[in-house]
Amino acid sequence: MDTEHLFDAEIARLRAANVAVSGTLTGELFNFLVDRWPDTSGASSDDIAREVFEHEIDDATVCIYVRRLRKELADFYATQPPGEGGARIALPQETCALRLEDVEEGRARPGSYRANRPSTLIAAGVALAVLALVALLA
């Protein structure tokens, strides 16, 4: 299944469930981030203020609406199963960009923040194996 199809299907499911209702500022933020997908760099507070709010506002106000959207997504997935292929939409803390995650297979889809950083468990496992090997040879 291609990533774009899964993303579009999950966005349609979120909209049908009235997550981030259009016409609200949270809904406008959601639409803005959907339109930017699959850009993984994330939107800046200035981009959001200019494009979503259409005037100058402070970073704190932008952060409030980003948190509200993050909460709406979390509330939806707390009560609903993941979509087709285990797909779910995430808005990670470290960036302001929507991500498509595949929870059934336990991995992030390409373009997801989890796919772009090394796993600490793997690094810890390798370090432990090296330490055990040094202990055996000593």
Question: What key attributes describe this structure?
Answer:
5 helices, three-stranded antiparallel beta sheet, 138 residues, mainly alpha
Global geometry: elongated
Mean pLDDT: 80
Total helices: the number is 5
H and E string: HHHHEEEH
Question: What is the gyration radius calculated from CA atoms?
Answer: 19 Å
Instruction: Report the sheet with the most strands, covering strand number, pairing sense and barrel closure.
Output: 3 strands, antiparallel
Strand residue percentage: 5-15%
Tally the beta strands.
Answer: 3
How would you portray this structure in words?
The chain is mainly α. 54% of the residues lie in helices and 7% in strands. The protein has 5 helices and 3 strands, in the order H-H-H-H-E-E-E-H. It has helices spanning 3-16, 25-36, 45-53, 59-79, 120-137; strands at residues 87-90, 99-102, 107-108. A hairpin with an 8-residue loop joins strand 1 and strand 2 (99-102). Helix 2 (25-36) packs across helix 3. The radius of gyration is 19 Å and the shape is elongated. 22% of the residues are buried. Mean pLDDT is 80; it is low at 109-118.
